[in-house]
From TrEMBL:
Enzyme class name: transferase
Protein name per the record: Tagatose-6-phosphate kinase
Protein keywords: ATP-binding, Kinase, Lactose metabolism, Nucleotide-binding, Transferase
Stretches assigned to the Carbohydrate kinase PfkB domain: 6-289
Presence of keyword Kinase: yes
Catalysed reactions listed for this entry: beta-D-fructose 1-phosphate + ATP = beta-D-fructose 1,6-bisphosphate + ADP + H(+); D-tagatofuranose 6-phosphate + ATP = D-tagatofuranose 1,6-bisphosphate + ADP + H(+)
Biological role: Catalyzes the ATP-dependent phosphorylation of fructose-l-phosphate to fructose-l,6-bisphosphate.
EC numbers, comma separated: 2.7.1.144
Native species: Paenibacillus eucommiae
The organism's taxonomic lineage, starting at the top: Bacteria, Bacillati, Bacillota, Bacilli, Bacillales
Length: 309
C-alpha cells in the first residue's frame, strides 16, 4: 500500500470562463469541485494507475465532509483526523479565451497539538502497513515548519520509504530528515543548496549536493523541458514530448505519484522516471488537477527520452 499525507486538504474548485478580467463581473461557464490538496491529487493518480492507496491528513467542517464524500465517490480509501476548523477551498479560474489560469488558495484550518499527536500515532500505524508514505503540500496553521521532519523521523522505525513534496521552510527542515525522495523546483534548489543553478551543469552539481546530504533520489522539474533526477549518485536527464497543455496544475503531483508507483512495483529506475514523466504529462491534458487517463500514460511512456549523464 502507498499512503499519501495531505496536512492541508482542500476542495479544489475550478471555474471555467469564456473571458476573465480583473475588476469586471464574470459569468462562470463551468464549475468543477473535487477533493484536493497535493497528497490527495497523488492518491487519485495512484488509484487511476491501479495502485492500492490510502489518503490521510486533516479535514474539518462541512468542507471536510465534502472531501471525504468525494473520496468515497472516487473509491479512494481514506483515514483522516477530523478538526473543528473548516478545510480550505482552492479556487482555479481558467480563462478559456487565452488558457490562462489564476489560483486563489485559502490558508486552511488551525491544527492543535492534540490533533497533531493523534495524527502522529495514526501515521506510524499506517507507515507499518505501507511500502511508501508520501508527504505533500503546505503546512496548515498551528503546526511548526519542522512538522514534516518530525513525522519523517516518527516513521524511521518502519520500513516505509518516505517521499516529500513541499516548499519553503518545510522543505528545508525536511531535507535534514533525509527522506528517500524529494521534488524541489529550481527556486527551491537554491534554498536547499545556497545557490540557484544558472544552467544544467550547475543543476547537476546541485543534485549531487543533495545526494551527498543523504537524499537517495531527487527530481527537479524543468517544465516543458522535462526533468533532471539524481538516484544513488547518478544523474538522469528526462525529456518529454511537446503537448498542448490544457491545465498543468497538478502535474507535479501526478509526477510524484508515477514515481511512487514505479518504486512500489520495483521497476528499474529509468522505468520509474519514465512513468513519472508520463503521468505528469498526461495530467496536463486534463482540465482538472490530479487526473490521468491510463491510455494517455501508456502513449507517453513510449515518447519519454532518458539520458544518463
Amino acid at each position: 500500500m502507498i499512503t499519501t499525507v495531505t496536512l492541508n486538504a482542500a476542495i479544489d474548485k475550478t471555474y471555467v470562463l469564456s473571458d476573465f478580467q480583473l475588476g469586471k463581473v464574470s459569468r462562470i461557464g463551468q464549475i468543477h469541485a473535487v477533493a484536493g490538496g497535493k497528497g490527495i491529487n497523488a492518491a487519485r493518480v495512484l488509484h487511476q494507475l491501479g495502485i492500492r492507496t490510502l489518503a490521510t491528513g486533516f479535514v474539518g467542517g462541512s468542507n471536510g465532509d465534502f472531501i471525504l464524500k468525494n473520496l468515497d465517490q472516487q473509491q479512494i480509501s481514506h483515514d483522516f483526523v477530523k478538526v473543528d476548523d473548516e478545510s480550505r477551498i482552492c479556487l482555479n479560474i481558467m480563462n478559456a479565451s487565452n488558457g490562462e489560469s489564476t489560483e486563489l488558495l485559502e490558508k486552511g484550518p488551525l491544527i492543535t497539538e492534540q490533533q497533531l499527536a493523534e495524527f502522529r500515532q495514526k501515521i506510524v500505524l499506517l507507515g507499518q502497513q505501507s511500502r511508501i508514505v508520501i508527504f505533500s503540500g503546505s503546512i496548515p496553521a498551528g503546526l511548526s515548519t519542522s512538522v514534516y521532519a518530525e513525522l519523517i523521523e516518527a516513521l524511521r522505525k518502519t520500513n516505509a520509504a518516505v517521499f516529500l513534496d513541499t516548499s519553503g521552510d518545510g522543505l528545508i527542515h525536511g531535507l535534514k530528515a533525509a527522506p528517500f525522495f524529494m521534488k524541489p523546483n529550481e527556486d527551491e534548489i537554491a534554498q536547499l543548496t545556497g545557490k540557484r543553478p544558472e544552467n544544467e551543469t550547475e543543476l547537476v552539481q546541485s543534485l549531487h549536493q543533495l545526494a551527498d546530504s543523504g537524499i537517495e533520489c531527487a527530481s527537479v522539474s524543468l517544465g516543458a523541458s522535462g526533468s533532471m533526477t539524481v538516484y544513488k549518485g547518478t544523474i538522469y536527464r528526462v525529456r518529454v514530448p511537446s503537448i498542448e497543455a490544457l491545465n498543468p496544475v497538478g502535474s507535479g503531483d501526478a509526477y510524484v505519484a508515477g514515481m511512487a508507483a514505479g518504486i512500489y512495483q520495483e521497476l528499474p529506475i529509468e522505468d520509474c522516471l519514465r512513468l513519472a514523466a508520463a503521468c505528469g504529462t498526461a495530467n496536463a491534458l486534463s482540465a482538472h488537477a490530479g487526473f490521468v487517463k491510463r491510455e494517455d500514460v501508456d502513449a507517453f511512456l513510449k515518447q519519454i527520452e532518458i539520458v544518463q549523464l
